[in-house]
Amino acid sequence: MNIGAIDSGRIQSMLTQLKAAAADRPAIPSQAISKIGDHDLITKTQKSKSAPTVDFAAALRSSLDSVNSSQSKAEEMGKSFALGDDSVGLSDVMIAGQKASISFQATVQVRNKLVSAYHDIMNMQV
After folding, report:
1. CA 36 to CA 49: how far, in whole Å?
2. Any transmembrane segments, and where (predicted)?
C-alpha cells in the first residue's frame, strides 16, 4: 500500500535540477540592481540590520522529508490496521492518510507555483 512516498533519490534529483537551473541564469550586474528608480537599494539594505539567511535547499529538504515521513507513517498505520493491530483505529488510519494526502498535494502545488514563477522570470526580457 504505497501512497507515493518521496524517496531521498527523488529529493536529490530535485535539488540537482534546482541548482542546475540557478547556475544557468544570467548574472545581473550590481550597478543595475543598486540604482532602480533613483533609489539606492544595495546600500540601504547593507546599512540596515542584516536578516538571518535561510538556506533554500535545507528548507526544501526539510519540508520534503516532513511530507515523506507523514506518508510513511500513514502507510505503516494502514498496514498495522490491516494486520489486526488493536492499538490502531480506523479513524486514526483515515486521518493520517488524509494528512499525508493534503501535505503531498500542497507540496505539488508549491512546486507548480515555483516552476511557473521560474518560467515567468526566464521569459522576461532584460
Report:
1. 21
2. none
